[in-house]
Amino acid sequence: MRLFFGLSLPDSIRREAQRRAGAAALLIPGRYGSAENYHITLAFLGDVPAERVGDASGVLTKCISDMPAPRLTLGDTAFFGRAQNAILILDVISDPPLAALHDSLVRGLDAKGLCFSPGPFSPHITLARHAAVPEDCLHTLTGPAVSFVPERAHLFLSARNEAGQIAYTPIFDAYFAR
């Protein structure tokens, strides 16, 4: 099972991200994802045997149950990688920073002997892959600084649906402290 920890988006934030992706698509060719799949990844686990899903769920619960929910705000349009073959994103600004949660999740996964992607962490929403970003166009892709406070995080399953498209489905929820 291909799994990751993440945060889902409320409809208002999803609509704003979709509006920004639509504006970007007019200027930046790329493979744009479905708005239904928009999320903020906290940690990527990769392929996990079904019998270890309970261990992954336990790590998520332990890491966020004492943590107050962060305030998340959509930031600027940016990209990872090379401009000719980029991952187009919306930055996400977090108060308090999500890096501490990410680090806690990674330590918890490591302690349980579960795999995870060790790369750098930068909270974002992926809009497109294989994007060809022209010079000096990102500054034109602005939007309001809309915010939200998630009440829970998810363990997501990444799998192809009946139509053969990738779908991200929450299979476990853990709630932030109140």
Keywords:
178 residues, alpha+beta, 5-stranded antiparallel sheet, 4-stranded antiparallel sheet, 3 helices, 9 strands, globular
Report the oligomer: single chain
Low-confidence stretches: none
Average pLDDT level = 94
Cα radius of gyration in angstroms: 16 Å
The span between the termini is 31 Å
Major sheet:
5 strands, antiparallel
Mass-distribution shape: globular
How many strands?
9
N-to-C SSE series? EHEEHEEHEEEE
Give the spatial strand order of the biggest sheet: 2-6-5-4-7
Instruction: Kindly name the structural category.
Output: alpha+beta
What is the count of DSSP helices, taking H or I runs of 4+ residues? Answer: 3
Approximately how much beta-strand content do the residues carry?
Answer: 35-45%
Helix content: 10-25%
Q: Topology, please?
A:
Elements: E1 2-8, H1 11-25, E2 31-32, E3 39-47, H2 53-64, E4 71-82, E5 85-95, H3 99-111, E6 124-131, E7 147-148, E8 152-160, E9 166-175
Antiparallel strand pairs: 1-3, 1-8, 2-6, 4-5, 4-7, 5-6, 8-9
Description of the structure:
By secondary structure, this protein is α+β, with helices and mostly antiparallel strands. The protein contains three helices and nine strands. The protein has helices at 11-25, 53-64, 99-111, and strands spanning 2-8, 31-32, 39-47, 71-82, 85-95, 124-131, 147-148, 152-160, 166-175. Strands 2-6-5-4-7 form a five-stranded antiparallel β-sheet, covered by helices on one side. It is globular. The mean pLDDT is 94.
Could you give a quick summary of the protein structure above?
The protein has 178 residues and is an alpha+beta fold. The protein has helices at 11-25, 53-64, 99-111, and strands at residues 2-8, 31-32, 39-47, 71-82, 85-95, 124-131, 147-148, 152-160, 166-175.
